[in-house]
Amino acid sequence: MSRSEQILDTYVSLLVDGGVRQATIEAVARKSGLSKPGLLHHFPSRAALDTALISRLRVLVKLDVAAMAAAPDGAVHYYLASSLEVGSDLERAVVAVTRLGQAGNANARAELRAARDEWFDLLLAQLGNPVMARLALLAGDGVAYQADITEPGSAPYVDEADVEEIAEAFVSR
Fold first, then answer.
1. Is there a contact between 139 and 133 (Cβ–Cβ < 8 Å)?
2. Would you place residue 25 in the very low, low, confident or very high pLDDT band (cuts 50, 70, 90)?
3. pLDDT digit string (tens) for 78-116?
4. How many other C-beta atoms can be found within 10 angstroms of the C-beta atom of residue 145?
């Protein structure tokens, strides 16, 4: 992994764990083991870090969309099951870019909307109904949220078996 990728990983961690206010250039440099000028050699500004992170999300979403399109159990099952993945590179990038969007970064918001639209298109292709496709997106968001806040094994924890039932409910509607 390149030094720039390591720095970007550090930036993601700071955004995910502490938000935009904690993810300063100084904090990224310190946590990366660099001086501020050393960090600025790789990323000349906070905006450059933001741009690199948004680009990383774009690549991860493209990979995810390709996997979703090829999923043997279908797009709905894939989307719901992947919503259980806490700590994946994609999930962390989505959270980090969401933090940027919440802080007013219009490019971050636009990239998140583009990702949502790509996932929606695949769900719509499988379900054939835009309302059901939107509900599947919302169900995935709910699965992801509960995965973030609930300990495995505690009620109302959703696991892979539940995902099977939920996906089947969408498909068999």
1. no
2. very high
3. 999 998 888 899 999 999 999 999 999 999 999 999 999
4. 11
Q: At a CB cut-off of 8 Å and minimum separation 6, what does 146 contact?
A: 156, 157, 158
Contact indicator for 108, 97 with CB cutoff of 8 Å: yes
Give pLDDT, residue 90.
Answer: 96
The answer to whether the CB of 118 falls within 8 A of the CB of 163 is no
Report the distance separating Cα 15 and Cα 57, nearest Å. 14
* Confidence band for 141, pLDDT divided at 50, 70 and 90: very high
Q: What is the C-alpha to C-alpha distance for residues 29 and 121, in angstroms, rounded to an integer?
A: 39
Q: What contacts 132, CB < 8 A, 6 or more positions away? A: 123, 170, 173
CA distance 62 to 37: 33
Predicted confidence band of residue 20 (pLDDT cuts 50, 70, 90): very high
Give me the helices (H) in the chain, please. Answer: 3-18, 25-32, 36-42, 46-70, 75-82, 89-102, 106-127, 130-149, 160-172
